[in-house]
């Protein structure tokens, strides 16, 4: 895929308020890209910068390798679906959809009616053309806004929280519709949303924004499974955080340094030895040393990734791979994140997992398909939230019930 | 119960004098007193043939028409600025623009007279009255148009821009039709205010009086009093009709822009 939109070092100030901080962003052609963040994080400002409604204080915005600095919104290859939809209430549905064709001399007047009907059919509003726009429902307005923008075949469609005004059912329905539409037209969509679920469902890639900065930019799965910071993890889905201690760092493939690591269980390495291992390892992962490492080492390292040992408060030691931890991780205190659905309560007859410990149910929240338990475990500072699917034959535990909690090293994320 | 009595008494107090106007306008006697003596349309016929009255009426209509147009244009600029942009000192400037609403008219009239005659040395005439009336009507226009522009979704114009229109055509194609009811309402109210304004017109009028000034002149001749009553009746009817139309347009505008009605002049 080719790069369609390139933002480099974009900064935006409102007076002394720093709304966008050094935004670097590349959006590929045909991508469904989401800007996700809490209100006031600058995601809408960023969208308006791309649309041309806001200028930048510093940095460049390129669309199709063309600098947009002096290009007004009406000459940019972008179209926008506004949060309020901004359907012109004094016009009919067809007049709304045809509005953007007025200035398009390349489209014959005689062809316009057909295009309008085509666009309306695309959003399942065929035959609605003659209706007055102000009499439409919320969902219909949103479709008209989509048709009005898509009829111009923009390179980029910008969507500013287009679903936030709809009720839950309608919103879920329109999410699927939008994905289908985007695949059908092949236009790059940039969606602004504060709803993490919506972003996960719809996007190819997501940029999570906080206070004018991009906290993390990844595909939905990476973002959810390997959040790079605690605030990203907290914003996307639920996560339990426990204090922990990295007690050992080891590299299974550390052949070149000569340290006989392979086969040693890192947890059993005595402390003074661990420290030496650490310095060795830090040398290895420090920037610039990669060039020195011979190819054998690189291959071996890929086959057996470096591991770390983490002592989690109340849960005990766990072995994790370094890609579960931030870059340049070292010994010392960390926060350990565990998603509720990666923890499990073992019901009768279920096999024990790798780690298991006893607990007491502290709180039960029943969602129908799922039950969320807060479980108190000895020596764990706060109750852990555990999400369990309500499968057939599986009881819903009551507050105060004793249970067995299972967890897996692979689900841990270090911050 | 007592509240109802109070409300009725209050309404009588407000409207009794106005109800008396048409009563005596159709009364067949030159003296304004009860009992009524009979029905006549003589006073209305007298209005038709009165040349100097027609002159005064023409003056007033020209002044009111010009005032309506100018104050609404100024009001549009101010209301749009207030609704759409943020600039330093916005609150202070808005307050300052609205100030003539509460300034005593007699003060405005005297100070304008001094400035126009003594400082600028201009001759008094319709134009001087128009200027003064624009001054007092603009705050009313701003108040009405603030509602119209304030209820407008700012994304509307942006959407038009986004769809390829220039700033001016976006305003003309989207904003203007949506605030048009407010514009008409503002013009009608300015027209009404200017039409029956007396104090400023009295001070600034040249050799040709406006209608209210002419009526005031008539009062010196008791025999003409029933004619004044007839004229007053027509003016009251006209004012009510114009204000009703203005209010209807204002409500239609709010309905059109899809906002909730937050009150108005009527």
Automatic annotation (TrEMBL), chain B:
ABC transmembrane type-1 domain residues: 57-246
Keywords: Cell membrane, Membrane, Transmembrane, Transmembrane helix, Transport
Domain of life: Bacteria
Gene3D superfamilies reported for this sequence: MetI-like
Spans traversing the lipid bilayer: 7-25, 31-49, 61-83, 95-116, 128-149, 169-191, 198-219, 225-246
Alphabetical list of CDD domains matching this protein: TM_PBP2 (cd06261)
InterPro entries: Bact_Polyamine_Transport, MetI-like, MetI-like_sf
Bilayer topology term: Multi-pass membrane protein
Keyword Nucleus assigned: no
Cellular localisation: Cell membrane
Record family assignment: Belongs to the binding-protein-dependent transport system permease family. CysTW subfamily.
Protein name as it appears in the record: ABC transporter permease
Organism in which the protein naturally occurs: Loktanella gaetbuli
């Amino acid at each position: 895929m080719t790069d369609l939109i390139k933002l480099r070092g974009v900064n935006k100030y409102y007076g002394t308020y720093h709304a966008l901080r050094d935004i670097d962003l590349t959006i590929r052609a045909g991508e469904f890209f989401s800007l996700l963040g809490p209100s006031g994080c600058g995601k809408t400002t960023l969208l308006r910068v791309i649309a041309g409604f806001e200028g930048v204080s510093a940095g460049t915005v390129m669309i199709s390798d063309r600098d947009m600095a002096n290009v007004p919104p009406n000459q940019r290859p972008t179209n926008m679906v506004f949060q309020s939809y901004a359907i012109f209430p004094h016009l009919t549905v067809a007049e709304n959809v045809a509005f953007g064709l007025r200035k398009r001399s390349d489209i014959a007047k005689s062809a316009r009616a057909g295009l309008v009907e085509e666009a309306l059919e695309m959003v399942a509003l065929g035959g609605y053309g003659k209706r007055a726009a102000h009499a439409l429902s919320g969902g219909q307005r949103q479709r008209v806004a989509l048709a009005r923008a898509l009829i111009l075949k923009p390179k980029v469609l910008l969507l500013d929280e287009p679903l936030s005004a709809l009720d839950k059912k309608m919103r879920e329905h329109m999410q699927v519709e939008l994905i289908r539409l985007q695949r059908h037209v092949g236009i790059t969509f940039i969606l602004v949303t504060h709803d993490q679920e919506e972003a996960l469902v719809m996007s190819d890639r997501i940029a999570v924004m906080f206070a004018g900065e991009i906290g993390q930019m990844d595909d939905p799965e990476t973002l959810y499974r390997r959040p790079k910071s605690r605030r990203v993890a907290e914003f996307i889905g639920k996560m339990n955080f426990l204090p922990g201690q990295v007690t050992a760092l080891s590299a299974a493939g550390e052949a070149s340094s000569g340290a006989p690591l392979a086969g040693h269980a890192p947890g059993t390495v005595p402390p003074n030895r661990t420290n030496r291992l650490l310095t060795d390892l830090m040398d290895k992962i420090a920037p610039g040393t990669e060039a020195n490492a011979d190819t054998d080492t690189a291959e071996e390292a890929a086959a057996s990734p470096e591991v770390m040992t983490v002592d989690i408060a109340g849960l005990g030691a766990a072995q994790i791979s370094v890609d579960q931890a931030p870059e340049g991780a070292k010994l010392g205190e960390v926060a350990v994140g565990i998603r509720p659905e990666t923890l499990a309560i073992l019901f009768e007859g279920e096999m024990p997992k790798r780690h298991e410990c006893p607990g007491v149910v502290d709180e039960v929240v029943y969602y129908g398909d799922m039950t969320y338990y807060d479980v108190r475990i000895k020596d764990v500072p706060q109750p852990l939230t555990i999400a369990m699917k309500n499968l057939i034959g599986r009881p819903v535990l009551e507050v105060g019930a004793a249970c067995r909690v299972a967890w897996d090293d692979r689900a841990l994320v270090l911050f | 119960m007592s509240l109802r009595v109070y409300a009725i008494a209050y309404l009588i107090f407000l409207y009794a004098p106005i109800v008396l106007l048409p009563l005596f306008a159709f009364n067949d006697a030159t003296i304004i007193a009860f009992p009524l003596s009979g029905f006549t349309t003589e006073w209305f016929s007298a209005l038709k043939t009165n040349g100097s009255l027609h002159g005064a009426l023409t003056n007033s209509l020209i002044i009111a028409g010009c005032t309506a147009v100018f104050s609404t244009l100024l009001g549009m600029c101010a209301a749009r600025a207030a609704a759409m942009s943020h600039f330093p000192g916005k609150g202070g400037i808005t307050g300052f623009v609205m100030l003539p609403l509460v300034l005593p008219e007699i003060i405005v009239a005297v100070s304008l007279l001094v400035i126009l005659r003594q400082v600028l040395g201009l001759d008094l005439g319709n134009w001087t009255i128009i200027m003064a009336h624009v001054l007092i009507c603009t705050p009313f226009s701003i108040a009405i148009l603030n509602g119209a522009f304030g209820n407008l979704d700012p994304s509307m114009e942006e959407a038009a821009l986004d769809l390829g229109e220039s700033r001016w055509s976006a305003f003309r194609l989207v904003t203007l039709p949506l605030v048009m009811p407010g514009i008409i309402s503002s013009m009608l109210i300015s027209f009404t205010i200017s039409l029956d304004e007396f104090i400023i017109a009295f001070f600034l009028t040249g050799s040709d009086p406006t209608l209210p000034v002419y009526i005031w002149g008539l009062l010196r001749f008791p025999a003409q009093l029933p004619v004044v009553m007839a004229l007053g009746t027509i003016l009251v009817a006209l004012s009510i009709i114009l204000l009703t139309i203005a209010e209807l347009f204002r409500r239609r505008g709010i309905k059109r822009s899809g906002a909730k009605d937050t009150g108005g002049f009527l």
